[in-house]
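Dear Dr. K.,

Following up on our conversation at the group meeting, I've run the structure prediction for Type II traffic warden ATPase from Anaerococcus octavius. I'm pasting the input sequence below exactly as I used it, so you can double-check it against your construct before we proceed with anything downstream. Let me know if the numbering doesn't match what you have in your notebook.
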Amino acid sequence: MALRSILRQDPDIILIGEIRDYETAQIAIRAAITGHLVLTTLHTNNALSSIIRLKDLGVENYLLSSAINAVASQRLVRKLCDCKTPDKMTDLEYNLARKYMDIDRDKEIYRPNGCPKCNDGYKGREACEEVFILTDEFRDMVRNNQIDLVSVSNFAKENNFIPMVANGLQKVFNGTTSFEELINVMYDQI
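The predicted structure tokens came back this morning:
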């Protein structure tokens, strides 16, 4: 009910805390189609599954294809403290990294160490993110009901989408976080 009242005020931007049901999804999508910038959250594992989630909530394909410009997802990883120590990747870590990028077997990584400033080797947090921008080709797929999680994932890979795990691996290799932290935070994505 509050969302309908907000729309009567003719705002330029609408921030919806979370889309949990069909009614909220419908109002958000219709607001986007009528020229409002709508920012919201959905509880999904990644950016790609957000589109499937909206479809599962009952949003029609023609509305999905018209209303969404981009979908982003993020997870926070702990940042390594300056006391970090250099190390080599284990075989498991190397094989995981190879799934997402070309990497030298001897590439140096860092492990948490711990010092009086941090205690456990970490200090602060950093976002690992992914952003999926909808193209005209993808909108056609949605409009023609040619999407499921596999087809969305395949399309994303073919169009140079950088998944959250790959973004996290870049942060591992530049010394921002550790492999252990990445695996701990993104176990369901790996």
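Two things stood out to me. The first strand starts at residue 13 and ends at 16. The mean pLDDT is 94.

Best regards,
J.T.
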